[in-house]
Each structure stands twice: as C-alpha cells, then as structure tokens.
Amino acid sequence: MTATSGPLVRGARNPGSQGALRHLNQERLFEFLLANGPSTQAELARGTGLSTATVSNIVRDMAAKGVVATSPVNSSGRRALLVRLTDTGDIAVGVDFGRRHVRIVLATLGYDVLAEESIVLPLGYDVSESLTAASELLDRMLEAGGFERQSVLAVGVGIPGPIDRRTGTVLQGAILPEWVGVNLRELEDAFRFPVMVDNDANLGALGEVTWGENRGVRNLMFVKIGSGIGAGLILNGQPYYGYLGITGELGHTPVAEHGIICRCGNRGCLETVASTTVMIESLSRGAEKPIGTADIVRHGLARDPATLRIVGDAGSAIGQAIANIANIINPEIVLIGGPLAGLGDALLDPIQHGILQNALPAIGETTTLRMSSLGDRAESLGAAALVIQSSLAGHD
C-alpha cells in the first residue's frame, strides 16, 4: 500500500456525509503521523484538534485495516497507546555528509529504521569521489536488505553549508569549501534517485522533533558545534528557512568586538572563538602530537584543567550567541549536537551560564538546554524525515 492508496485515497465525495467526514478525519491522522512519526493517541488528539474519543475510534478502524499498528507505552508516567504507520514498502533514504564521514539511513514511512551505516572520508575529500562512495554504499545497503530500487521514494542529503533553496545549490560559507557550487542535479546524477538537499543543522533539528526524545516539540533550536557552528530552527512546529534558506548561521554571529577576522569577512564571529578547530589549535600548542575532538572529550571528562578552560570559554561564547537568538524566537528547548556532545555538563554548564547572562531573565530561566538525544545520527535521520514528510505532497 502507498501513502494514498487503500482507505485513504483522495477523491470526489459528498462532504456532508458521515462517511466523508470520517474519511477526512482519517486523512488528518494519517498526515499527522506521516509528519510527526509515531504518536500517542493523546498527541494525535492535540495535533489534529479531534476529540480523544474520535481519535480512539479512528485508530481502531485504521488498525483493523492494517494502516496503523499500536503498542502500549508510558507517557508522562501514564500508560498510553502509541500509534505508528505500518510498513508500506516505500523507503526513505537519509544521507549526512560530514567533515570526515558519510552516514546513510534507510527508513519506512512509519519511521522505522531498516538499515544504517557510515564510512570514513579523507580530510579535504573530493566531492565527486565522496558522492560516488556514498552512492555505492547506498547500493550495497539496498542489495543487502533485499530492497528494490523502485521502493526508494527519494534521497534526503544533508550538507554542512548554506543552501539556496531556490536552486538547491551550496553557497559560499560552507565549512567544507569543496561543496560550494554543488547543486541538486549533480546530487541526483550521483545517486540516480530524486534528491532533496538541506543544511545539516536544519536536518538535525528536524530529526530531533520527529525521531528523538523531543518528538513533537514545536519551538526548538538545534545547535551543531563542530568546525563550523550552525543552528536549525523549528518554529511553531515547522522548520524555518527564511527567504533564501540561509538561516541559523550562528557561527557568524559576532561575539568578540576586537576579535580576529573570520573566513566570512567579519570580525570576532563565534566560529573564531568557539569552533572545534579553534579548540584543537589552542590545546595542540606545546602538545607532543596534535589532538582531535575525541581527545577533547576524553580530557574534558578526565577534568583536565586546560581542556575545561578552553571548553568553558567556548561554551560561554556559544551561550551568548544562543541568547541573542532566544531573545527573538523564544525557543522551548535548545539542543547541543556535534562531536563534543560526549562532554555533557562540562560543555552544557558554560553554555547555560552564557544564556543566563545574556538572555531576558524570563527566557533564560524557562528555556531548556540539553544534549541531542540522537547523537551523530540526528542529521541522517532528519534527512530521512525530510523525504517522509514530503511524500504526501508528492502524491497529492
């Protein structure tokens, strides 16, 4: 069954009949599940505006027809019924390109992960070669799972750089300059599937509200701290893209008035004082051998004074930048992702301090700050969610 087959096919009907009303309500539940992933009946009622009794009756009918499956869960300390779409045979592919890796996930429309793999890419890799490697990995995953290529709806691709949504082109400012100028057509030629492309931080935010512990949160900021620092925004339940699609460039927020020149041309940007690159350079001075992000995490957890000072200074600056955005959009939750997530409170505490020092008191005190619930999977899962949520529009 496809997303619009069986009992959920759109078509002419008498809008005043009870059957037509029930059909419309089924579609509302189906579309909510498609957009938000597995949800409790209470979440379905809140999200669709239908009464709990109506939701219960429709879920029972949809389960009998095989459209959804249900399972008992605990929600806020109470027993609840989790509802998820059943496997339609369609597959969404999510791909995340990082500085040194590519990760691919295969998922169903019901938000079940079918397969997940990653491979290491060389530093400063050639984009053409990395696309070939990713395409070959996807082909191997499909073959290993016994999945037909025809079952793939599309491939969602996350790239660490600003994307012009008008053309699907990577713009100047990408942390990996090799990607600048790469466009949607090149990606589709490489994967030989329809492709949807987005910034990796945007996809991290989308992944968190559809797959993670923060599923269903309507106002969220996902901050990815790495060689660059980007933020993905979910506002009123929807990803926010602005006019061109260039949003959340947190790393280019000035935080040091007399700081050094940033690669973007401005002075004192957050990226010049708080990126993992800057931390690594500072901690590598005088060291016997260069260190990496894994070393920062390891030394930070071991309470190494120099590491904690570098991380603390960076965290305070990041908190200042987050506070400036929080004062404008008032997020419910701010999540921290990226390779330093393993530091836990050693990174969160200085970020929290920076937020409280610079945000309006009411905003700073009520904004929840925590680490990503998905770790390094957030971006690839978000890329798969991008495909899943677009599948309805593609079938309308």
TrEMBL record:
Domain annotation HTH marR-type: ranges: 28-78
First and last residue of the signal peptide: none
GO molecular function, one term: DNA-binding transcription factor activity
SUPFAM superfamilies (UniProt xref): Actin-like ATPase domain, Winged helix' DNA-binding domain
A Pfam family: MarR_2
InterPro entries according to UniProt: ArsR-like_HTH, ATPase_NBD, HTH_MarR-typ, ROK, ROK_cs, WH-like_DNA-bd_sf, WH_DNA-bd_sf
PROSITE patterns per the UniProt record, alphabetical: ROK (PS01125)
Family statement drawn from the similarity comment of this UniProt entry: Belongs to the ROK (NagC/XylR) family.
PANTHER family associated with the record: GLUCOKINASE, ROK (REPRESSOR, ORF, KINASE) FAMILY
Descriptive protein name: Transcriptional regulator
Lineage: Bacteria, Bacillati, Actinomycetota, Actinomycetes, Micrococcales
